[in-house]
Amino acid sequence: MNVLLPDRVTIIEVGPRDGLQNEANQIKTSDKISFIQALKLAGIQEMEITSFVSPKWVPQMQDASEIANHCLDDKRNFVLAPNRKGIERVKNTDVTAVALFAGVSNTFNKKNSNKETNELLNELVPIIQELKTEGYFVRACISTAFYCPYEGKINLDDTINVCRKFVDAGVDELSVADTIGMATPEEADLLFSSLLKEFPSTLLTAHFHDTRGMALANIYACLQIGISRFDTSAGGLGGCPFANGATGNVATESVVYMLERMGIETGVDLEKIMKALDHIEPHLSKPITTPHRTLYKKENKTFIK
Ligand code: HMG
Ligand code: MG
To answer: What are phi and psi for residue 150, nearest 5 degrees?
Structure first.
């Protein structure tokens, strides 16, 4: 095996946030909480549990405060916030890890945050500085880092420049996203190699949507250059409601399976991820059809490792 591959990888579970934000059925808060708790029992140490966005824009996330109040523990529980109003709501909870988000392209940002890129960054930079002086862990989620559904291919330098704004403002982590699942392993290698060179002191996480089945190949490309943090979503749930063509994130179960079979530790128990999905699947508008989920159902809930 390639000696450069990491021994251990951190899985950041985004199912309760990215996964559910695009779900057509309004899920009961108690069912979301059971899902989150079951994911924690599966060994997940970092998770995006909800987002404090406008309930008019994303009704599914209207119970963010309740979710935060029920699900905080000693693990890293991220909540997303889009603006000052979201941060004020976060500060009324005991949350200690915040994720702010911006795309690289103007058109996406206008649709997702009702602001163009510079306007959005100018709003977020002072918020980050303030959160850092108050001791929060701050992650920046960078959408449309490779392709935008409205503007097409994104220039590498534009992505690096948006990342630099966040790094200069003091974020702890960049989670860099292929929002509509168009990147190839070569592109993943190029962007993440550049980010590693530009931002050697910032935690770098890859967030791949699996729209075209490229995500595992992209993760493998990232592993080879030393990236060891990946956002994944149990059941492959997910998608941004404001990015045409954005389907689910790469499935947690696929990534855990691949890594563990390669001898790379994740600390996540695949069978318990299936049990977590048992909590949420009955409430979803569609069945979960990832390869592991299909096998699990076929084998009458006996999971084949
Ligand atoms: P806006 O309409 O311009 O906001 O939306 P506004 O400031 O004009 O306020 C309008 C109303 O919303 C007001 O209420 C505000 O109080 C309220 P009214 O006076 O009409 O009753 N409001 C809020 N309420 C609660 N919490 C808030 C909040 N903000 C305003 N935080 C806004 C601007 C940013 C709010 C809106 O565009 C929004 O909420 N966008 C979020 C979109 C979203 O959630 N997208 C998905 C997450 S990002 C993603 O999935 C990508 C990622 O996975 C990476 C990848 O894959 O690319 C991270
Ligand atoms: Mg996403």
So the answer is: -105, -30
